[in-house]
Amino acid sequence: MPTTEKVERVAELKDRIEGSAALLLTEYRGLTVSEISELRRSLRETDTSFAVIKNTLMARAAADAGIEHLDEMLSGPSAVAFVHGDPVAAAKKLKAAAKQFPALILKGGYMDGAVFGADQANALADLESREVMLSKIAGLLKGEMSRAAAMLVQLQSRFLGVLESYKDTLPGEPEAAAEEPAAEAEAEPEAAAETTDDEAPAEEPETADTPEEE
């Protein structure tokens, strides 16, 4: 039966595993206490903690956290880097430390639901860090934006040129409409000229007196 202390230690490790962005496993055989302390200080810069852990406790905690096959890399004196920041930056620190302290061996790790070996861990260290990648992406975006702006200016200039050319092909403004035809034809002569004396009707002859009856 595991002791209460071991149960608590396993539960603590499980919480640390689940709260980490990645795990990097190392073998530290041959490292001195001062060298391990120096490595810990270096890893803190990447928001990573480095702990020497018993293999049996780590294997049980990993199993409780749902991680399979991690126990296959837990052999020999093991120390685990619990990465809370950028896994690439942490892997770079460990790889640099391995060059400085040849006794340190990077054995593998766990990230994004997958366990990986030493080759993948070293390949992770060869990638560009998150900051560098973001900087490059920002540079690319800035370049693309500049090119897009230049293209828009060029298209605008070309469009204005097309408009000017099209304008030249249009007929000129129509001149003022021809003067309206002269005012309406002169008024028609009066319907009937004044009547002349010659045209006046002749007077009727006076009637002879009627003889009175006797």
Uncertain runs with pLDDT below 50, 5 residues or more?
Answer: 175-179, 182-214
Q: How far is it from the N-terminal to the C-terminal residue, by CA?
A: 186 Å
Structural class of the helix and strand makeup? alpha+beta
Radius of gyration from the alpha-carbon trace, in angstroms:
54 Å
Total strands: the figure is 5
Biggest sheet overview: 5 strands, antiparallel
Q: Which percent band covers the strand fraction?
A: 5-15%
Enumerate the strands of the largest sheet in spatial order, edge to edge or round the barrel: 2-3-1-4-5
Helicity, as a percent range: 40-55%
Shape: elongated
Count up the helices: 6
What's the pLDDT, averaged over the residues?
77
One letter per element, helices H and strands E, the order comes to HEHEHEHEEHH
Describe the model.
- By secondary structure, this protein is an alpha+beta fold.
- The protein contains six helices and five strands; from the N terminus they run αβαβαβαββαα.
- It has helices at residues 4-18, 33-44, 55-64, 87-100, 118-126, 130-169, and strands spanning 22-27, 48-52, 78-83, 105-111, 114-117.
- The longest helix is centred in the last third of the chain and has 40 residues, at 130-169.
